[in-house]
Design goal:
The chain is rod-shaped. The mean pLDDT is about 75. It has one domain. The chain is built from 2 helices and no strands. The longest helix has about 60 residues. The protein is an all-alpha fold and about 80 residues long.
Length: about 80
């Protein structure tokens, strides 16, 4: 009777993953992610940081020029 019950509950599908195997898989994935990040992601990150710095510098320059233009416009309005 117990054997028949076990067969009915099994259905060929495991109900849980052994935690040991899960830990091994997580460790392997961690090493893969570390390897990929050391080879590809870090240069990409530095490139994006460089691009962001360039964008910030251009925005600052645009802001300064717009500020100067506004001062000139205010001066022209005052002169009228």
């Amino acid at each position: 009777m117990d054997e028949l019950k076990k067969r009915k509950n099994d259905n060929g599908v495991r109900k849980y993953v052994n935690p040991g195997w899960a830990a091994v898989i997580i460790l392997i994935l961690g090493y893969v992610v570390m390897f990929v990040s050391n080879t590809k992601a870090i240069p990409l990150l530095t490139k994006t940081v460089h691009i962001n710095e360039l964008a910030i510098n251009t925005l600052k320059a645009n802001y300064k020029s717009i500020k100067e233009d506004l001062k000139e416009i205010k001066d022209l309005i005052k002169e009228r």
